Amino acid sequence: MPQTRHLEHINLPADIKALPEDALPELCAEIRELLIKTVSENGGHLASNLGVVELTVALHRMFDSPVDQFVWDVGHQCYTHKLLTGRRDGFSELRREGGVSGFPRPAESEHDLFLTGHSSTAVSSAFGLAEAKNIQGKNGFVVAVVGDGALTGGLAYEALNNVGRTCDRLIVVINDNKMSISKNVGAMARHLAVMRSNPKYYKFKTAVERLVKAIPIIGKPLRNWLFYSKAVLRSAILRGNLFEDMGFAYLGPVDGHSFKRLVSAFTTAKKMERPVVVHVSTVKGKGYRPAEKSPKSYHGVSAFDIETGETQEARDSFSARFGQCLCALAQTDERICAVTAAMTAGCGLTEFRSRFKSRFFDVGIAEGHAVTFSGGLAKNGMIPVFAVYSSFLQRGFDQILHDAALQDLKMVLAIDRAGVVGEDGEAHQGLFDAAFLSSIPKVTVFAPMTYAELEMMLAAAVYDVSSVAAVRYPRGAQPLPPAGYVSSAAPFSIFGGGHAPVLIVTYGRLFAQAALAREALKERELDCDILKLNRIWPLEKEAVLAALPYNRVFFFEEGIKSGGIAEHFAAALLETGFGGKYTIHAVENRFVPCMTVPRALSVLGLDAAAMCAAIEN
């Protein structure tokens, strides 16, 4: 790999325009070297960023950010953008506390418009930006860079349908690498594949337009007439183009690693005076062979060895154990189906997909659809289990309420990454699901602390709950249980002698922190018991009654305080006549930024040391 010669002189996008064209491939090589080095040390999204290096350089060479505005969808493909917009010197702190975020972040730079940690939103946001420019008479284009995986989400189509022919300075760049996280699914993936494999129409169209435009006097009117008469030609050669049918001009497919073709496409797009789709084909993981060979494995990756590609991530995890447990249940019950929203590997469903192909459904990045689809499966006698990250389940709230619980339909939500998730920061923290699920009637929520409890509670969710059941579990491996602890699927359990003056109430992995705090307090001659909730909603009446005899009750919750389980428990205690002192320690009204999980628990007052301090004070 080359020594840095160009990148160290790029401080703002204007510096890219000053480079000679033959220096751009060298700049891209330097960028890739820095991306690989940094992500190998810090973890992050590697394959997606390696694939858009030339595209990002070309965008900043052809447009003038921040007058021209970029919206990234999903935001995890923005690392090169950050390097080119003044954040190169701090890039070594990528995804570290106080450092450069792994997603666009307006607080970092005027070149970042939105904090985009989920999918399919860019066209909507960009359309709003462009219309605001038009209303205010401001200059500049708005460019939405949309991964093809984002086109499996319904919001993207709502926006595309709304834009139509109305917005003349909006350019939608489709970064087509044939993948989101798992391999893309659905009709749009097939449509893009057809467009990639049949460029005849676009070559012919470009040649005709050039020829007609060159005709004196009548060239431009004739070109415009041909534009409105080309439907028959398009249908004959390509059998339709969804984007042109929706009112966009379409350019592509363009080689996303060729500066000549990218520059040509963007030059044309800027002259179109109508909304334009530029379809760019890229290679996910380009420039690092392990990532090219297995882009799914290097989508979101922990620290790894550059030479071997081996990661430092523990192989055992709640996600992996969930997949194993679900396979065991499906082996003996043909009604059980697995549903995922483009997260087959991330949610531990690779083995299920292989073993039970007819009962496995990847619906793309469409969480709301996944819930309602699961409702259809349930209505006809199947038992759907929808595996989804906590932060992404937020997008299915309406469907859980209206299309599942209101219909009294039986389904299971396997909620991965519940609680603090670490370096992905604000957009990915799983701190809201317990609060919003507990607001919906007929929803039952379990929170295991160990793998054994995960297995028992998943079985209970499948067979013992008649409506919507959720099993929520954290990212990574199970915490170390205290000596003498026995896993249980009972609604709650008391750990301790039952006669202490102080009671800690908690659930999930925080129980392990509470157990450490209990041991430390015991050494300081302060005795306490722990009430561990296993079924956190609805609250077990006996659990509330068990807390009545204590003088002081502390509820520690790895979730948002407002509307959380701790507040529900407080209300239930009050109704039963509790006369002691009750204190809630949960996430106050805030979003939790990037930091390691242990650090976040400490900052939020939820680790063992913080528990001890709160109880002693």
Which terms summarize this structure?
single chain, 617 residues, alpha/beta, Rossmann fold, 3 domains, 7-stranded mixed β-sheet, 5-stranded parallel β-sheet, 26 helices, 40% helix, globular
List the topology elements:
Blueprint: H1 13-17, H2 24-42, H3 47-50, H4 53-62, E1 69-73, H5 79-83, H6 122-136, E2 142-147, H7 154-163, E3 170-176, H8 187-197, H9 200-213, H10 219-229, H11 231-238, H12 242-245, E4 249-255, H13 259-270, E5 276-281, H14 289-293, H15 318-332, E6 336-340, H16 350-355, E7 360-362, H17 367-379, E8 383-389, H18 390-393, H19 397-405, E9 411-416, H20 433-437, E10 443-446, H21 451-463, E11 468-472, E12 492-495, E13 502-507, H22 510-523, E14 528-533, E15 535-537, H23 541-547, E16 552-560, H24 565-575, E17 581-587, H25 597-603, H26 608-616
Parallel strand pairs: 1-2, 2-3, 3-5, 4-5, 6-7, 6-8, 8-9, 9-11, 10-11, 13-14, 13-16, 16-17
Antiparallel strand pairs: 10-15, 12-14
Helix pairs in contact: 4-13, 6-7, 9-10, 15-21, 17-19, 22-26
Short description:
This protein has about 625 residues and is α/β, with parallel strands linked by helices. Helices cover about 40% and strands about 15% of the residues.
Write structural notes for this entry:
The chain is α/β, with parallel strands linked by helices. The protein has 3 domains: 7-293, 3-Layer(aba) Sandwich (Rossmann fold), CATH 3.40.50.970; 318-472, Rossmann fold; 492-616, 3-Layer(aba) Sandwich (Rossmann fold), CATH 3.40.50. Helices cover 40% and strands 16% of the residues. It has a 7-stranded mixed beta sheet with strand order 7-6-8-9-11-10-15, sandwiched between helices. The radius of gyration is 27 Å and the shape is globular. The model is unreliable at 227-238 (pLDDT under 50).
